[in-house]
Every structure is written in structure tokens, then in C-alpha cells.
Amino acid sequence: MKIMMNTKHIKTLAYAIAVLSGGIYSAQVLAHGALVTPSSRAVQYYGKQWPATEIEGLKLPAGGLMEADTPYENQFTFPPDGKIASGNKAERAALDNESYPWVSQPMHSGVQNFEWFFGQFHRTTYFTYYITKQDWKTKPGYGQKLTAEMFENQPFCHHIWPMSQPIPSPRPTSLTHVCNVPERTGEQKIYAAWRIRDTDKAFYQLVDVKFDGNSTPGDDTGQQKPIIHVANEKVVVDQSDASAAYPLDVSGSQYATQYVWEVISGYSNFQVQEKYGATTGQRREGPTLTSPLAWVAANHTGTGVYRVTASNQYGSVTKDITVEVKAKQAEQKPVIHVANERIVVNQSAANAGYAMDASGTQYATDFTWEVIQGFSNFQLQEKQGAITSQRLTGPTLTSPRAWVAANHTGTGVYRVTASNQYGSVSKDITVEVKASDSDNGEDTGAVPAYDSHAKYDVPCTKVSHNGKIWQNQWYLNAGQEEPGTNGQWGGWRELGASNNSCK
Description:
It is globular, with a radius of gyration of 29 Å. The chain has one helix and 32 strands. Strand 16 and strand 17 form a beta hairpin. The protein is an all-beta fold. Strands 4, 6, 8, 9, 11 and 12 form a six-stranded mixed β-sheet that branches. A five-stranded mixed β-sheet has the order 13-21-20-15-18, with no helix packed on it. It has a five-stranded mixed β-sheet with strand order 22-29-28-24-26, with no helix packed on it. The chain folds into four domains: 2-211, chitin-binding protein cbp21 (Coagulation Factor XIII, Chain A, domain 1), CATH 2.70.50.50; 234-326, Immunoglobulin-like (Sandwich); 342-434, Immunoglobulins (Immunoglobulin-like), CATH 2.60.40; 437-503, Ribbon (Seminal Fluid Protein  PDC-109 (Domain B)). It has one helix at 41-46; strands at 2-4, 12-18, 33-37, 56-58, 75-77, 105-107, 110-118, 124-131, 157-160, 174-181, 186-196, 201-211, 234-238, 244-247, 258-265, 270-273, 280-281, 283-286, 293-296, 302-312, 315-326, 342-346, 352-355, 366-373, 378-381, 391-394, 401-404, 410-420, 423-434, 462-465, 468-472, 492-494. Residues 32-209 form the Chitin-binding type-4 domain. Residues 1-31 form the signal peptide.
């Protein structure tokens, strides 16, 4: 369902941006944004961290990857029926399960705050909010799946970020919209979408709400069991020569009046501490004990499991946290393995990107990629459609793209540096762009150019050279023979020729 929105008839109020201190939420590397007040399904299911902040799908209707997106500032289309809560992201399909016991957040009509948490804020087209129709439960699919027909045709709140509006500095980690929620009764759904200007993506958040006439989002006055939000359900640490303690964190939990922590696996080497220096035990409890320590015996390796139980007058819920202690590794610098140190491609009439691969690298905890030669025509991209840059860095950035400007020929040099706590190592990758061959009009654009530095160990490999396409008849070492220089019975023979044994 495509909606054309007339902003003159959309009632919106001002919103506020708050830059929160770094410790409030745990931002993951790939995190982007989640609706935390009222708590979305994603936050209920995953907690206030990745992957709750990664309910990401194609923006609908589709805009260009790198365009201003201005034509779409007042347009919105729901993801497919039955895949609305997940944003049509297959890995998050659990959010589309209507039989799951989702906790309805208290809500009332009128002015309400909607707070987003961001792991990474982006240039924005808009934020928009839809609510289900009062009779949404009468629509086909109720109880089995959510459908676009169940929601109103117009948003009740819509905030456009003009193209000219820059990203605040520092980037916000929190943003609150003040919206006027329509009159409703009983159980309803609120759907929020954050459309990004510079990519083909949007972020989607589905909130289960219940209108009781007096509660507001975030209140803990309703008959609500606790909701546990664990900052990290698996803690991985290195073996220590001395006993050590590591923080466990459920400080983002809601509605709890009492917390109980227990060691349920690994008693002899794992214990609980209320704080550093306190006595250890298999069980600790308290009304504010949201961040105790997982104590581990000296020189121990293995896994311990901790269980936290949050309770109030309406019931209790539990979650388990695993602590894995790995054997201490030798002091090892990274070892870089690059799939191809020299990439040869043909000139392209359009901007083009080519994969560079250092995924075989060992022991690295961070990667830095830089253009060290050819800055004006060679750049880096994290992935297709991403912005270009002369430098990229990240702990999992093993396979960025070498971006080359349209119609350019020449050589660019990229440097990858892999590092860890013991040091860093670098390797250079050369990208050579050859002028397009067009002497005989044969289309060679889809065939890689002949590379005298490469060995051709698979017979019948196709290469382009001097306007023709060639195939090797047998194994050829690097530089052993240039196509077209050794006669009709040479190692390279023209595609389709009668003397070509490749079929």
C-alpha cells in the first residue's frame, strides 16, 4: 500500500535531541536505531542493543542509493503483509510471530513521547508513525499476521529532516518525538519507520500498546511483569593468572522490584560478587542489584552460566547469561592474507566497484583501509551503494570495495592494516584499470583483462586482450605467453576459433 502524505494535515509537535553519555546503552558495531520508549517488540525480544537496532529493510517506496531522496519525503509503503514487524528481514522473522506473548506497553491518547536510541545516526529523510484502526481485529489475518489494511492510511506523526539539515555534532544517541496519539481503546499496534536519505534502507519498529485511559509510556504503574534487558547475553574473556571479575548488566530492565542472581553451571570456578572486593557466592539478591560481577577463579578456562530473575508483585521472569573463559593466546601480531594483491580490470563508462578480500587474515581485532595512491579517482566503499572515502576502519572490515571513477584508466594503490593488542601489519593492493579494447568491436567488458603477473592454472579461462577474447589451452605460468604472440598453436587461442579446444 503506497501512501501519499499531505503534511499540511499531519499534526506534529516539536522533537528534542538528547546526546546521552556513552554508558547508558551498549552500542554494537552494526547498530543503527531502535524505539525504546515505548518499548518496541525488537527491544522486548533482543534488549536495548544490537540486533534490536538492526530491524532494517528496503525503504518503501524505493529511492536511489545516493540521491537526496527528496521526492519521497511524504511517501511511505508498508513492508509485505506478515513481515511488517521484521521489516521483511528474514533473520528477524521472530518479530512477526503473533502468537508470541508480546507485552503491551501502556498508552493513552493525546501528547506522548517516542524515544529512539541510536548506535549510529544517519542522514535522515523522515521519521513516521502509524497506528492500527480501532476495528483492526476484524480485518483478515488477525491473530496470524499483521497486514497494512489493519493500519490507518495516514500517519499520526511525521517528521521530515530537510536535505539541508546536517547531522548534529556530536552525532545524537537519542532522539525524542512528541506526538499527538489518536483516540483508541484496548489493544493496538503502533508502527514507526526511520527512512535514511543516503542508502536504500529504512529501520522499522513495531510497538504493542494497550490504551487504558491513564497510563503513559514508561510508567510502571500498570499490572506489568518485569521485562529483562541484558546488555550482553554472552561474555567472552581471556584466561587470567589471578581471579578476576567481569560485569553483568541488566540495568535496562523495566518494572522489577527485586533481582536474584544465581550460578547455575560451573559452581566450583564461577561465583557472584555484588561489587569488586565483596565476598563471592553462588547466589546474591537485592532490589537494585542490576549490575553484579561474574567472578572467575584464577587460571580457569571453560563456561559458567548465570541466571538473573527479575520480579515484582505481578510475577517474575528469568534470563541466562553465559561467561566463557578462553585459554590465553600467545602474543601474536596479525597475519594478513589477501586474496589478490593485484586486481586488473577494464575501463568502465560508469563509476564501478571491485571487491578486495582480506577475510583470511588471522588474529586481527581491527582493520584500516586507505587509498595511498590515486586519491582523485580511487576511493573506498564499505559495500555497494555506501558513501565513498579515502579511509575506512572497523573490527570486521575485511572485504571493502575499491571504487573507481567513470572512464578512468591508471593505477590506484590501497593499503590494509590489520592490528591487535600486540601490534599491526600492513599490505598493499594494486588496482590497475586498463583502457577498454575496442579494435574489432567485440564486447570484452564482462571478461577480465589479461594480467602478465597472474598464472592461469585452469584451462579455458577467458581473458580480454587487444580487442579479442582468448582462452588458455593448458596451464600457463605468469608471463609465460601473451595472447596472440605464439601463433595458431600457442597456449592462448581466440574464443570460437576452429583451433580452440575449449568448448
